[in-house]
Specification:
single chain; Thiol Ester Dehydrase, Chain A; 5-stranded antiparallel β-sheet; about 25% helix; elongated
Length: about 140
């Protein structure tokens, strides 16, 4: 559920409470692969992934993007995202927990729309590795 935010009180540089996403594993990769029609076996077949030189299967990049979008909509509400872009930095392995955080980079208005540009990061809790970098624009209200 989105938090009710007061436009007047939001400042550039504001950090929002982080969100941890655990429970990351092969079953999730398989379910996401089926739902997204991403049949690449390096995400779901351990032997195949190892034959390619990976230690095991790993999360689809767009699964991480989906986690980031969930975090943003939990903060600002469904329908708030106007633009979203991501860069995948490192693989996410089974058993890892990702911590998502967001910072307001820019606060502005376009017509009657109140907009925020956000810097969102997904960090692997176990090793502190940056897994995904997201830039998003959200509309308030």
């Amino acid at each position: 559920m989105a938090v009710k935010l007061d436009w007047q009180k939001i400042e550039e540089g504001r950090e929002f409470d982080p969100w941890d996403r655990g429970g990351i594993g092969i079953e999730l990769f398989q379910a996401y692969g089926e739902a997204s029609l991403d049949g690449n076996p390096m995400h779901t077949d351990e032997e195949y992934a190892q034959d390619l030189g990976y230690p095991t299967v790993f999360a689809q990049g767009m699964l991480l993007m989906a986690f980031a979008a969930k975090y943003i909509t939990d903060l600002f509400g469904v329908g708030s995202i106007r633009r979203i872009w991501s860069k995948f930095a490192k693989q996410t392995w089974p058993g890892e927990t990702l911590r998502f955080s967001a910072v307001v980079k820019k606060k502005y208005e376009e017509g009657d729309r109140k907009l925020l540009d956000l810097d969102v990061r997904g960090i692997g809790v176990e090793k502190g590795e940056e897994k995904i970098v997201v830039e998003a624009t959200v509309v308030l209200g």
